[in-house]
Amino acid sequence: MQIYLPIAQISVDFFLLLGLGGMVGVLSGIFGVGGGFLLTPLLFFIGVPPAVAVATSANQIMASSVSGVLAHLRRGTVDVRMGLALQGGGLVGAVLGMGLFNLLKSLGQVDLLITLFYVVFLGAVGLLMFVEALGAIRRAKQQKPVRITRRQRNWVHTWPIKRRFRASGLFISVIPPVLVGVVVGILSAIMGIGGGFILVPAMIYILGMPTKVVVGTSLFQVILVSGATALMHAVTNHTVDVFLATVLLIGGVIGAQFGAMIGAKLKAEQLRILLALLVLTVCLKLGFDLALPPGELFSIAAVQ
């Protein structure tokens, strides 16, 4: 069933969009990522203009995150105080990112630059995830104990303005969480992502948060930042397609509930390597499309 998207100005299959939203919702529930880093390039593939895909994806990310957070709140695996610190930095980053996005748009190359951003980030993150997941699987097969270094004293324990985050069992400065939030906010505004694929490892390896509260807290942070990003895109660029967002929202909310249940049953190492392979596949497809000559070539010639 074809539906017309007025802002994107294309017709797409309704069930295809619903399936994309549902798939990203499942990933959100399993890994604690908003899923925009996969949804946005997937929208590129079906013909949605990059600027519209970036702005509209933020709506779906927010809905999937709300659905996922509700599931984690029921299990008590959300550090609300840490999430608020991350959200504060994320809002600042989103404003900075919108300024950079509008600058790129004024230069007339925003679509190309967004795609290049995705190729670089997805390639780097996918490779790191793949290597880390392989190492975890190898250690599990050899039954070697994993060295836990998160609780060791590092630079986040030496900064001022310390606060106690009881759900995470931490007493650290609020400055590092705010800075992490700023970086995620900038990426959210430029690339239409929740930033979970950067936020989750940062929360574990930089902030030292226990894994059991990382996923839920990540989703909690994504809600406000993605919502603010979508609102700013709608007001300043008018690139949020309501029809597209609505279909993605429906699929994402449903998928996130299934994802939370799946994530509680499957092995973390296997899930991470599957996600890494998916990320690398999308990255290679984007890079391949950039390398191909366009289907229609245009030239400008003076008419005598």
From TrEMBL:
Keyword Membrane: yes
InterPro entries with a match to the protein in the record: TM_pro_TauE-like (IPR002781), TSUP/Inactive_protease-like (IPR051598)
Keywords from the UniProt entry: Cell membrane, Membrane, Transmembrane, Transmembrane helix
Membrane-spanning residues: 12-39, 83-104, 116-137, 165-183, 189-207, 214-236, 242-264, 271-288
Membrane topology: Multi-pass membrane protein
Protein's cellular compartments: Cell membrane; Membrane
GO CC terms, sorted: plasma membrane
Family: Belongs to the 4-toluene sulfonate uptake permease (TSUP) (TC 2.A.102) family.
Protein name: Probable membrane transporter protein
Lineage: Bacteria, Pseudomonadati, Pseudomonadota, Alphaproteobacteria, Rhodobacterales
